[in-house]
Amino acid sequence: MLFNSKLFVLGFLPVALGGFLLLGRSRRLALLWLLACSLFFYAWWRPELLLLLLGSIGVNFAVAGLVLHSPHTRLWLALGICLNLCLLGWFKYAGMFGVEGIILPLGISFFTFQQIMFLVDLSKGEIDPPPLLDYACFVAFFPHLISGPLVRPGHILPQLKMLEPREGISSRLPAGFELFLLGLAKKLVLADGLAHFAGPGFAAAARGEPISLIEAWVALLAYGLQIYFDFSGYSDMAIGLAQLFGIRFPVNFRSPYQAGNISEFWTRWNITLSSFLKDYLYIPLGGNRHGEGKRVRNLLITMLLGGLWHGAAWRFVLWGGLHGLFLVLHGWSRRWHLRWPKGVSWGLTLLCVLLAWVPFRAQNLAAVAQMYRGLAGLNGLAVPALLAPLLPGLGHIVPVLPWLGDARSISLPQSVMMLALGWFIALCLPSLDHMSERRRSLALISSLAFTAQALFFAPSAIPFLYFQF
Prior knowledge:
The protein is mostly helical. The protein contains 18 helices and 2 strands.
């Protein structure tokens, strides 16, 4: 069930929220209702996979008891982490070794990582052991179950323990709906609209066709915006939904394309995953201790595994490796006291991030190479047929590509307007958590008509990009 579907907006959400508020006199009944709704939400796609989620919750809760009460805490912790990684590895990576017919369960990357965080934090004494109901709600809470954000147990479990379902309704419901609707607008109006301009170029590259300079850059600029608005829109919707039920999620995006360097980018993009990789992988590996060589090694391992977490394909490893390399080079530039003008630093950062999106989006490494050739202009500079009459003599210098029909159909005026709007929002406007209430309300009002049109007249809901992970 998709957040951006009519079934969710007009069916599931009103029933889930209404029942939660009706049962709000009893925290336990409200949590039982919330858990039941979350399990129903998960089972909607494939009911048989609900057993996997329930089994994962039960096993991890049992292991947590052993971690807490056994004298062999480290042994049980290692076993718990190993079980979670084996579960994730089988469903997500067995296909790399020729195993066929495995269905990837929705959200498995997220609920396994969250339970690993729980076991680690519990073993360190950073959280108190919760009742089974609270723990199950923490793992299965539907706003974050499928695609995050990766919320910390120390942030959510205390809120569940102190939850007052009917407290602050007059303020939290309007704020929650506002965030949800703004996220929905990002998805339906911006992300799905930009997909039409990102898709043709990457599809042509996947077919092995040469991509011209303009085609390649239109596709890449559109995809950079598409994935940002798609994933940040989902995060805003998840944060808004959680707020409706009295739970506060951390902010997951803070205008990442406005970052002045690659390190700052990772403090603004998918913040919960970035902090997970730092606190549960990079620092345990040794972090920046024990010399520069080991710092570089730890950084590259962290980013390579972060790339592999996104999918069982070499293109994701390449994406993670590129970001690891960028971070290493940034660290060296700081050590050597290289100072760049702010505008140059920002431009280089954005260029690096965009170039790294190529393997993330392309279907295979051959398509990655084809896209990079196009971006470098090695396949020629082709212009749309629409512009040929406006550029006298240019047709004798460069080929004219008629962008008509086929999968490479691009309307130049529409693409220019859509890209200009998207990049203006991404580069010039603050993130939602930094907007004043008045500006957020104005943004909501201005986007409502387009959002309603996209929701009610679209033939079907388009899945979020991160659902595949």
